[in-house]
Amino acid sequence: MKGFKWSALLLSVLVVQGAFADVRLPQVFGSHMVLQRRKPVPVWGWADAGEKVTVLFNNQTKTAKAGKDGKWKVSLDPMEAGGPYQMLVKGKANTITIDDVLSGEVWICSGQSNMEWPLAAANNAKEEIKAANYPQIRQLLVKKDISLAPKDDIEGEWAVCNPETAPRFTAVGYFFARQLQQELNVPIGLINTSWGGTHSETWTSREAMNQDSELGAVAKKLPATYEEVIQSGKERTQALLEKQQGGLPTAGEPARWTDPTFDASQWKSMNQPGDWEWGGLPTLDGVVWFRREVMIPEGSNLNKMTLQAGSIDDRDSTYVNGQLVGSTKGIGPRSYNLPEGLLKPGRNVIAVRVVDNSGAGGLAGPPEQLKLSGERLDLPLAGQWQYRVEQVFPSSFKPGPNTYATQLFNAMINPLIPYAIEGAIWYQGESNAGRAYQYRRAFPIMIQDWRQRWGSDFPFLFVQLASYNAGNGNSQRGSSWAELREAQTMTLQLPNTGMAVTSDIGEPNDIHPRNKQDVGKRLAAEAMRVVYGKTGVSAGPMFDKLAVQGNRAVLTFRNVGSGLMAKDKYGYLKGFEVAGADKTFHYAKAEVQGDSVVVWADSVAAPVAVRYGWADDNSEANLYNKEAFPAVPFRTDTWKGITEEGKFGK
C-alpha cells in the first residue's frame, strides 16, 4: 500500500512536470545570428499561457508573460556593434542557449533567381570561395516554402562565412555584405529569403493586394486548401486541352507526328524559343511536340548540315523529315549533324518531342541558336512553331510559388517579422516583365507592405534588370524588359530607395549574369548613401530634361558627378535613338557636351523623343559618369507600351 502511494506521488509529479511545455523560439533566432545594432531588438516565441519568460543578453534582462495564445515578446534595448555574446531564454521547464551572437547590420536579401544565385556559380567562384573568410558576415538561408495562410516560423539556420559555407551564400548578398563590412567595420547579417522565377505578387500580403483594385481581384481567388488547388489545376488543364486540341491524343496517335506528310494544320502555334508556360500552356509539366515546316530554296548547298536547337528544357527527341537525328537529356545546347540527302530543296519538316518534368518547358535557348546551318546556308528557325500536348504529368497540378499570389509572403516573409533589420536588397522583375506596366503599382505596393508590417520605412535597395535578349525587343518592336526597367526607375519615387543599374554587366544569352561582384558593390554604394550618410555619387546619370535645338535634342542629367563620359576606347556614345512626330525611332549619333548629351539623326529633321538603352539587351549603352556608374536607361516619350494590357492572373 505504501509502495502504491509513493508510485502515485511520483507519477503525479511527472505529470505536472510534463504539463509545462518548453519555451520555444522561431528559427530566425539561432547561434551565429546577427542582431541589428542601434535599434530596439524584438525577441519572441511561445510558451504555456501565462508562463513567465526571461531573456538575458549583453547585460540586459527582459521578462514577459505568455498570453492566452502562448505567445510572448520582449524588446532588447538598442546596442552598439559588438560580440560575440550569448543569449539565454528561460522558461519554467527549459532554458535555450544561443551562442556566438553578434550585433551589427542586418539586411533582408530577397527576389528571384539572380538573388538566389549562389556564390558557387558566380564569376571567379573558386578564388572567391577560397578567400571568403569573413567571420563577421553571417547568412540565414530560409528554406523554400509556400503557404495559403500566414505562417509564424521558417526552416533555416545561421552560418558563419568561411570557405566551407560561402558557396551557399547569395552571391549578390555576399558581395554587398563584404563591401559594407569593409566600409563600416561592423558585423553584417544576411537573411536570404529568395526563390527563382517568382513574381512580386507572391511576395506581397493578401491585405496589401486587397487595397488595389486590380490586384485585389487576384487575391480574392486564393483558395482555402491545396487540395482545392490541385483539383482546380486538373480541371483548368483539362478544359484548356479540350479547347486547344480536343483533349489528349489516343495511344498510337503521336507516332504519326514525325511523318512529314502528317496534316498538322489544326495545331495551335506559339513562339519558340520560349517558355511554353508563357506561350499558352501555363503550369504544364509533360510531353509536348513542336513542328515547323522549313522551305529551302532551290539550288541551296546542303552539304554538312546541322540542326542547332540551343538549350531544351528538359529532354528532346528531334526528327527531320521523319528521321530521328538526335536526343539529349538535360539543359544545354543541341547540335545534331544531319545525314547527307535528308534535307531537300522545297518543303522540309522538323518535329521535336520535348519532355519537361518541372518548371519551364520548351526550346529555351536564345533565338540565334535555333537554326539550320551548313557550309553556305544559314536558316533561322526562331518564330512560330505548331505544338500539341501528348501527355500531362501529375506535377502540373502541384501548386508552385506563382500558382497564387501571397504564398511566399505567407511562408518566407511573415515569419521573419518583426526581426530587427536595417533594410532590404531585392533582385527581381524578370518574371514580371510581361506585365511591366502593372509592376509600376505592384512593386511599390509590395515595398510599402513590408515596411508597414515592420513598422518602419526601412531602406529598400533593388537591382534594375540586366541586359538580356529575352525576346529580341527594342524600340521598333517594343521591349517588355525596357518597360520593366522603367517601372523600377519609377519606384525610386518612394523614400529611402536606391537602384543599381546593371545594363553593362548582363549577358545577352543568359538571364543569369555571373558578374555578381559589381551588383553587390553598386548596391553597397547606394546603401552607403541612403543609410549611412556617405556623401558623393553612388549611382549613374539620370535623365532630367530634354530641349530641342533644330534637328538636335539636348539632354541634361542628374547624378552627373564629376562629369559625363562614354565608356568606349574611341569615345563614341552608343545606345541612343531619336524619333520625330511619326514615332519611328532611328539609331542616333550622340556626344557629350559638358553636363549634357546632344543627340541627332540625319533622317530626323525635328526630334520629338529620345530613348536610351531601350531594348531587352541594352548592353551597348555606354553613358557613364566619371565615378564609373552607368546611366539609367530612359525614354522621353510616354507612347503606348507593349505591356499595358498585361495583368496578373491573365
TrEMBL record:
Residues 1-21 form the signal peptide. Keywords: Hydrolase, Signal. The keyword Phosphoprotein does not apply. Residues 105-230, 417-527 form the Sialate O-acetylesterase domain. One of its GO terms (biological process) is carbohydrate metabolic process. One of its GO terms (molecular function) is sialate O-acetylesterase activity. Coiled coil: none annotated. SUPFAM superfamilies: Galactose-binding domain-like, SGNH hydrolase. InterPro entries: Galactose-bd-like_sf (IPR008979), SASA (IPR005181), SGNH_hydro_sf (IPR036514), SIAE (IPR039329). Transmembrane segments: none annotated. This is Sialate O-acetylesterase. It comes from Spirosoma taeanense. The lineage of its organism: Bacteria, Pseudomonadati, Bacteroidota, Cytophagia, Cytophagales.
